[in-house]
Amino acid sequence: MRFLCWLGTACLILLVAASDAAAAAKPVAGPNRRTVPRRAATILDNKTHIDANNIDMIVTNHGSFAEELTSQAAGFFYPKGSTKTAVFAAGPWIGAKVNGQVRVAVGEYSQEYVPGPMLNGTFQTDSPRFKNYKIVRGDKTSADYLNWPVDQGAPVDSTGAPALVGDMMIWSVYNDADPDVHSNLAGSTEPLGVEIQQTTFAFNRSGALGNIIFVRYKLFNKGGNTLDSMYVSAWSDPDLGGFTDDLVGCDTTRSLGFCYNATNADQQYGGTPPAVGYDFFRGPIVPSGTPGVFDTLGMTSFNKYINGTDPRGADQTYNYMQGLNANGTPVHLFNDTTQAITRFQVPGDPVAGTGWLDSSPADRRLQLSTGPFTMAPGDSQEVTIAIIVGQGNDRLSSITDLKEKDKQAQIVFDLNFDIPAPPPNPTVYVQDLDRSVRLIWDQTPVGTHSANVFLKQDYVFEGFRVWQLPSSGGFREAKVLATYDVSGDGYAALYSDLFNSQVGAVERLEVIKGTDEGLRFQLDISSDGFHGGRLINNKPYYFAVTSFALDTMNVAPYFVGVNQVGTLTDVLESGFNVVTATPRGSNAVYTVTGRQIGTEVVGATLQVSQVGAVSDSLYHVVLLPSGNWAIISVASGDTLFTGPGNPSTGGFDSPVVRGFITTVNPAPTNPSMIDQLEGGTGLLGAADSLNMAGGAQVDSSGTILLKNYIVPYDILNFNFADAVQHDYLLRLLPTASEPAWAYAGGDTSKQATFNVPWEVYDLGQCSYEDPSDDAKMSIMVRDRDASGTFTFGDAVYIRRIPFASVAWGTPGIKSTDYNPANDDQTLGRFTLYKAAGGTGRHEEDPRGSEPVLRALPVRADPVRPRHEVHQHSSVP
Prior knowledge:
The protein is mainly beta. The protein has three helices and 58 strands.
């Protein structure tokens, strides 16, 4: 079996004008506008769209694309979201000779293909599985992904998973083996027996690739006949806006054919009409005549005709493929029989005004062909085309832009599409408020990068840009409202050397006006970026948030004179995913119903990102031993997000997880709770305010009042900044029998000369229930009144020196014997005062056990979740 590889690319450039006129079906004037339905509507898929970037194009599962076949209307919309159309119809045509007789298969207004692969040399009975399969990067749960038709020939990667190219891809298979559908007036022959596996894909990004759709064909000769003198054509009816003012041309050096407007006054695009082109990147690989050496064909002919002069019969179609006139006579330059014969009609340069140029604008057809080559039974070919949309400021600069984008598309093709990708789009949520809106986006792109070693490029995420658009498809007129970039990396204003189609040359332009001041994930918008003034209630507005990355392997400072004004690099930016926001007079309420289930005072603020965005589920928001916090799905046990505790700053730095926003309040350094325990056996019961029934209480001044049930004490001046996120247990003793270090003002001896009615234990983290890591610590008393004994008002310090390590009975022992650095080495401190009405003496608990106190600094608690989020409630 021989395998021949044929690849090609088609290019389209489109210019957006101010008008957004509706695209209606073109009058049925040509002889081929006859449809012959042969399959049920559930089998013929005429409605699938590929819309990953700025183009929205219909793709069928039987050869045609860019046409809405059901209503016979144009199906190539640019910009996406508008009703402006750049192409009316397109599809693959193939022709060859079988035993000397011409056979063709036409993908035009009526198709000579049927869905599905061939079997045993012919077509198969209709099946719902012979459909378009559409997959999108990042979504591995769709029905099409999970039911990928490998048995039909759909491509897979080394793991057996769908081999996605680009960010969105549509795959289908069809063939011309059913003789009943060979009824187009341009064909109507016996079948060739060719199966075509078609992959349509696009990249979601800005720049040239944001205006390109690729189509790759794999052709298989499964009919049993040798196909001799075979040609493959990229055919199109390129109604460029209005269809009566089209001209066409070709560039033989680029294998490029194109359509452009005759004037700068198009029916749909107004004064800035586009240019539309098709380019074979690479034609069939054919034997060169030297064994083992092959040649690669490019575009071998280009022809044109107008509505009403469509080919009638297979012989005329095959003549066009060969670069002849419809009647089989040769084409002469300038249609002058005294000039040289050519296979390329109108190959001049419209921009320069040189060479043979098209005239008399009308409803044009164009056809690029490559061949001849031979396909024996079992042979295969591969064909890749790319549909590209570019933009100039008039009809001729659009041609210049077309050729520049064609060059970029060729580079992408030559790299087998293995190119760095921009960071992914964030998911954007909308809150509609009174005369304002709030955009909130997630952190999906943060920290991503994409590299290509061959190109020596590494694009690292740098920031976000927030845009307002005049309409859902108004990409060209979009305005930047805000730019947020990574702080501290030295990158702010970013410049690139770019081709400017308006002037026809490369210019150094500022592409990102950054600030190097940090990322944000929320923006409140109250003024109209286009018309000024406050937003108007009940009026739709259009916004987008893009993410951008810079090539960190190719950066250089950019100076103007002696001043550095920015960084010269290359930037990749994600495409527009437009969201609609409509301010409303009655503010929507965005709440998450939750409850606090721990006793820590530090909490989390929960907010719904968008009405309907939160599913009814259960989540835990917890603090971790590291000081970070996490969101955990109770149902799956999965950790959905982990991040540092952040200040409550309006949620600007908070992530969106499963549709809700969590803001963790800053942690204070004083203890989060004082528990009074009964004989060390358990909690006596704490109210929400941390008041303890019969235990520690908080009075109106914020003083924590500790009671031992008979004699009250006040405890002030808590500071556990150095408490290393541990719990500490303070146990009252019946008498002042605990040895401690004495510390008087200015005295650094810290001798073991005091006895106090306390003992202190370091319990570790979240570990009152786990005594295995408990350690008794030593105490130091600051003798404020120089009485030589512990009295109320003295400060009590918890030392880092373990109690058991000190030889307390040694006369004159000093803390410097254990702490040569002679610093305080404290974990925390507090001060005891006699409370109002107190006796100033400690008395034994009449219940027979001494009060036990536990001080918990604000710290992580993996055992005790902070909040539960268990359902969503939104009231507009």
